[in-house]
Write a structure and sequence with these properties.
By secondary structure, this protein is mainly alpha-helical. The chain has 2 domains: 190 residues, f41 fragment of flagellin, N-terminal domain (Up-down Bundle); 78 residues. 90% of the residues lie in helices and 0% in strands. It has 6 helices and no strands. Helix 1 packs antiparallel against helix 4. The longest helix is centred in the middle third of the chain and has 92 residues. The chain is rod-shaped, with a radius of gyration of 45 Å. It starts with a helix and ends with a helix.
């Protein structure tokens, strides 16, 4: 394998670690974003459930005002409460469509409102506008008001359960989001440490694979420059490192050069010996 390929492989290993860290952290961030969206949705459900509950209480209060001969004020309060409840129940029906349990609980509350509370209010309106004896009329109204108060209490309890469920969902989603945040931090630290360690290890290994043979060749070259051409054994024992790259080619070329020098020196000595008388 050529040196440039080895360096490229080392570089790709580091890039792969960065990519793995980035992919993992991106996944965690996506999950955190989804959880935050869920938290926002649950908070909106909780707020609308509370608004619906307030609407029930206002409706009850408006009915009391109406029954106490404050007809206009009572009707205004009841109209306002009905508008508030219609808006919130529409939102809640859509928001809880994917949660059958909470949707069933909301339907129970809405049924209580329509079948019990609204029916009682309609009866109070009829009784109030009749010519029945005053004491008997207010006794009947009071009975209906007791039914409204009991139904409102039941509906409030069911809405409180619904809100408790959404609050638990918010807390769970918040805790899970924090866990993903902590995990992302840990992953970032671990991957940075791994990348740093890998980079150092690769630089040491690659440096040694390249510089050690070159240092040995440099030492032989120094000896050859001083006229010591008997380096074959040294070359064989110390430079025959099969790195599988250009270092091998350099060593082979150096061996051939030293052998060529030795042959040239031998021929020169033979020529000088033949010329002597």
């Amino acid at each position: 394998m050529k040196i440039r390929i080895k360096l490229l492989v080392s570089y790709l290993i580091i890039i792969a670690l960065f990519a793995a860290a980035g992919a993992t952290i991106t996944y965690n961030i996506t999950k955190m974003s989804d959880l935050q969206t869920n938290v926002a949705s649950q908070v909106a459900i909780n707020n609308n459930a509370y608004a619906y509950q307030q609407g029930l209480d206002q409706k009850q209060f408006g009915t009391l005002m109406y029954s106490a001969d404050e007809v206009n004020q009572g009707e205004n309060v009841m109209v306002h409460s009905a508008e508030l409840m219609n808006t919130t129940v529409t939102f809640l029906m859509n928001a809880l469509a994917a949660n059958p349990t909470l949707l069933a609980k909301l339907n129970e509350v809405d049924t209580i409102n329509r079948n019990q509370i609204d029916t009682a209010i309609a009866q109070i309106n009829i009784i109030y506008n009749t010519d029945t004896n005053s004491s008997d009329k207010y006794a009947q109204i009071w009975n209906q008001l007791n039914g409204i108060m009991a139904a409102t209490t039941t509906a409030d309890g069911k809405l409180a359960d619904l809100r408790a469920s959404t609050q638990a969902n918010v807390q769970n989603a918040t805790n899970e989001s924090q866990s993903y945040g902590t995990l992302s931090l840990i992953i970032a630290v671990v991957f940075l440490a791994a990348i740093a360690a890998t980079s150092v290890a690769l630089s040491i290994v690659m440096g040694n694979r390249i510089t050690n043979p070159l240092k040995k060749l440099a030492d032989i070259a120094h000896k050859v420059s001083l006229g010591d051409l008997n380096q074959r054994y040294y070359l064989k024992q110390n430079i025959d490192i099969k790195t599988g790259d250009e270092i091998d080619e350099l060593v082979d070329a150096f061996k051939r050069m030293v052998n060529a020098f030795r042959m040239q020196e031998t021929l020169l000595k033979e020529t000088e010996g033949a010329e002597k008388p």
